[in-house]
Amino acid sequence: MxxxxxxxxxxxxxxKYAFFSGVPCSNFADLFQQVxxxxxxxSVPAASEGSALSFAVGAALAGQRxxxxxxxxxxxxxxxxxxxLVQINCIPTLLLISVRGHTDEPEDEPQHRIxxxxxxxxxxxxxxPWSEFDGTPQGFMATLLKAEEAFQxxxxxxxxxxxxxxxxxxxxxxxxxxxxxxxxxxVGCALEIVSESLRPTDLIVSTTGFISRELxxxxxxxxxxxxxxxxxxxxxxxAGIALAHPSRRVVALDGDGAVLMHxxxxxxxxxxxxxxxxxxxxxxxxxxxxxxxxxxxVTSSLEAVAVACGYRAVSRCVTGAELGEAVARSxxxxxxxxxxxxxxxxxxxSLPRVTSQHSPEENKRAFQIALNQxxxxxxxxxxxxxxx
Length: 388
Hints:
Elements: E1 3-4, H1 5-14, E2 17-22, H2 31-37, E3 42-45, H3 49-61, E4 65-71, H4 75-87, E5 94-98, H5 113-125, E6 130-132, H6 137-152, E7 157-161, E8 166-167, H7 187-197, E9 203-206, H8 210-219, E10 224-226, H9 234-244, E11 250-255, H10 256-261, H11 264-272, E12 277-283, E13 286-287, E14 293-294, H12 302-309, E15 313-317, H13 320-331, E16 337-342, H14 360-372
Helix pairs in contact: 1-6, 3-4, 7-8, 7-13, 9-11, 11-12
C-alpha cells in the first residue's frame, strides 16, 4: 500500500503543520518537491539534519508547527540539537524518518545495516515515541493523532516511513530522469577528465552516492577509497590521509550536497593546508541519487567559500577544457587546491554499486595496501609542486 505525497501533505496541513525542513531520501519520493511548490507550507532545504531541526525549532518558537524529514542514517546528526535544544526546552517537533536497512526487508547497502537495526532502540533510548507508518491515509492520520498526544506533553514524535510507502504526485521519476541543465559536462565525463590527468600512484577518496558509483564504473583501482554513507565527510577523510602521508597526492572527489552539509571542513583544510591535496567538487545543484531535489548551491558560490577559507588555489570550471587545465595546474603546484566543476544531472540508468564487487572492508584493505606498498622507480610520483 502506498500514500501519495499530495495526500500526505494535505494531512499534515489539516493538522496545522506549516513549516517543513529536512535532508532528502529516495524513500520520500517527491515530497520535498511537493512542499517547495505548496504556498501554504514554508519549506527550508537544509544542508544537514541538525540544521533542519534547528530551523524547525525557530519556526516552532515563532508559533508554527514544524516537520523535519530525514533518513535514519541522519539520526546521529540530530542527537545534539534533539537533546540539548528540543528536549531540554520542551519544543516538540514531528520527525518523518525514512528507514533504510530495516531488519525485516531485503538486505540494503552495508552503510545502512547498523542504523537500520538500531533505529527503534535509539529512539527509545532518547525517549522519543514513534510509530511505523502502514502506507495508508488512515494509518498516517492515526500516527498524526499519536503525535498530537505527544505534543500535548511537549514531546517530539517520530513517524517511520519505509521504501515504497510513498508515491510521487508530480510525475517525477526518483533515481532516474535527468533534469534539464545548461552545463555541458556530466559527472561521468568530468571524472574521465580528472582520471586521465592523475598519476597511477595518486590516491582518491570519493563521496557517497553516484560520484563513487561513476568512479567505480570508469576507473576501479586499489587506490580508490569509496565512501559508503557518511555524507559530507569525504574531504576530511582525504585531508587526513594527505596530512598523514605527505609524499602522495590525494584527491577528494566531492559533491555540492556533501560540501554544504559540513562546510566548516573547508576552513579546517585551509588552516592545516595539506600541500598534496586536490579537492574536486562536482556541483550538479541537487541530490540526484535521492530524486534530484535542489540543493542550495544554486544560490551559493562554493569556490568563493574555498578562497575565504584559505585554499592556496581555487578554480571554477564549466567546460571540459577548463576542468582539464585546472586539474593539470593543480598537479604541478602546491595545494591545497579547490576545483569546482558545474555538471548536469545526467547519469547512466544502470550505474553499478561498488558493493557489487567490493565490500567496504575489502575496499579499505585494498586501499591501505596500495597506500603503503613500496613503489618502483617508474612508479615514483613526482614531488608535489613539480610537473611531470
